[in-house]
Amino acid sequence: MELKIKHDGALSVIELFGSINSGNAQEFEAALAGEPSGADGMLIDADGLEFISSAGLRVLLSAKKRCKAKTFRIINVSNEVMNVFDVTGFSEIMDITRAVRKLTVEGCDKIGAGACGEVFRLDDETIIKLYYPRVKKEEIELEKALAKKAFVMGVPTAISYDIVEADGRTGVVYELIKSKTIGELIRGDEAHLEDYVSLYADVCRHIHSIEALPGQLPSFKDINRADIPNVTGVTDAERSYLHRFLDLVPETLNCLHGDLNINNIMVQNGECCLIDMGEFSTGTPMFDLSRILFSMELAGAPRGEFNHFYKMPQDTVDRVLHLFFEKYFGCPLEEAEKNHPEAAWLYPLAWFRCCTSLLKGDRWGEEKRAMALDILRTKLIPFVDAQDK
User: Rg (Cα) of the chain, in Å, rounded?
Assistant: First the structure.
């Protein structure tokens, strides 16, 4: 074992190397006991730590107790050492962070992209979601935690491994053995399009059939409400209509994915598996379905303009859209509201998504912004006024 001590302001930083076992645990304890924790506490950098025994764990526990309410963190922990912390329960009582693996996606196939990042296949067994630089680490850790929670609740999700760094960006690695997205399957085998869309509708109905407990998951309505302040180019009165619209939307505890497009659903051995779980939440299933409607129909106006996202002809996108709703509702989209009253929210929610997405920043250009403003003023606002009467 080798140990180095330095100070970062009032924080004591302890760098560990080699192995800590019963043979050197007393030496480790004496070194920590002789080091005042500093006004800000103690940081244990385990980047060079290869192994720690129960004797070493007891030393860490004593050091944490001495720090009392001050900071006591362990960082850069290898997977092998993290396994020891997990098995012994130390990861439940201490602030411990894994070491970040460094990878590259150079030469890897890109299989999808969304608002927060891109998905690449690393090899036959794993994929990586690589986040855009603007996405905060806290948001990435939340998505990883939500994916784990979804899996426990019975939602078919990819198993997440560690948070990594790839080409200067942060990513999360997931296990997905020899799988393809529904979008890839349709593009490569359009003759079986109906079979793939059936899988698509089935997995959507499944996630929507699962109900969460009150407070167990974020509310998708709250997630959407947080987007309203980012809308630009509207008056205060128009912005208030966006809030009033959300107030009208029914609140339910159905599980939602948040972005059920065909590039976020992997198929492995005939079974679907969801990725991109950053908005796993609760609410009316019409939120999820309206986002499909938005991405395949509204965002693509004029026809064909959004084809780059799905990488397929507009006629194929139209077939997928209408066949999906027919299989989900058991009737054509045009008849959905008659047989399923909640479907009355489909287009209004798609209009809302159009406004909060296309009017946020300058990513979409002036033509799309003009379209979104027209939808806000000629469709969404009159809809809200009609509900208030």
Answer: 25
Beta bridge partners of 13: 6, 43
Q: Which residue is listed with tokens 């009032």? A: 10
Q: Tell me the three state secondary structure of residue 145.
A: helix
Measured from the Cβ of residue 323, the count of other Cβ atoms closer than 10 Å reads 19
Residue 210, classified by CB atoms within 10 Å of its CB into exposed (0-12), middle (13-18) or buried (19+), is middle
pTM for the model: 0.77
Q: Could you say which DSSP state residue 297 is in?
A: I
Query: Which residues lie below 8 Å from residue 253, measured CB to CB, with a gap of 6+?
Result: 211, 212, 213, 214, 282
Of 24, 18, 37, 277, nearest in space to 147 by CA: 277
Q: Distance between CA 205 and CA 221 in Å, rounded? A: 20
- pLDDT tens sequence across 184-230: 999 999 999 999 999 999 999 999 999 999 999 999 999 999 999 99
Q: What is the DSSP string of 68-102?
A: TTSEEEEEEE-HHHHHHHHHHTHHHHSEEEEPPEE
Amino acid at 250: P
Q: How far apart (Å, rounded) are the C-alpha atoms in residues 245 and 228? A: 11
> What domains lie within the chain, and their CATH numbers?
2-99 (3.30.750.24), 103-175 (3.30.200.20), 180-388 (3.90.1200)
Task: Please state, in angstroms and rounded to a whole number, the distance separating the CA atoms of residues 56 and 31.
Answer: 12
Instruction: Tell me the three state secondary structure of residue 360.
Output: strand
